[in-house]
Amino acid sequence: MPDEGLSTRLGGARVRSVGVTVFVGLLVLSGCGGDDDSADTTTGAAATTAAAGATTAAASNNTLTIKDLKFSDLTVKAGDTISIVNADGTAHTVTADDGSFDVEVPAGSTATLVIPAAGTFAIHCKIHSSMHGTIVVT
Asked: Using the 8-state DSSP alphabet, how is residue 6 labeled?
């Protein structure tokens, strides 16, 4: 029996159409991850928000993770970019107690923050009053 090709042995056009459908679906999904900073509230420091699944260049040691309604511990150098990863299914803020910055981070999204000056910054979430943490900037 001559070799009729993989697609013929697996059902011909049906396999090819499934492959095309999957490919088109992936293209559509890849276009859904746009930035929308219009809902961000930021004061004092530079901040941006990226949609879930977006790739960020921040080093893992400069990541503030929000998970289970808690902030991770973080120590960074002044001027470093901080990647804020919201691993919860609800929106949060990273708000300095002294008012020097306020970043909204939608559920499942990532935002960035740059704190230009050294210091110890007590933080809280304006949405969830029980959430408190500290960012140490050297």
From this structure: H
Are 52 and 91 in the same domain? yes
Host domain of residue 56: 37-137
How remote is the C-alpha of 98 from its chain's centroid?
25
For residues 92 and 26, membership in a common domain is answered with no
What is the structure's pLDDT at 56?
41
Per-position b or e across 119-136, b if 16+ CB within 10 A of its CB: eebebbbeebeebebebe
CATH, residue 78: 2.60.40.420
Q: Which residue has the tokens 């499942």?
A: 108
Per-residue pLDDT of 78-114, as tens digits, reads 999 999 999 999 999 999 999 999 999 999 999 999 9
Residues 83, 63 contacting (CB under 8 angstroms)? yes
The vertex-101 CA angle with 68 and 97, nearest 5°, equals 70
State the Cα–Cα distance between residues 84 and 103, nearest whole angstrom. Answer: 9
Write the DSSP assignment of 21-41 as a string of letters: HHHHHHHHHHTT----GGG--
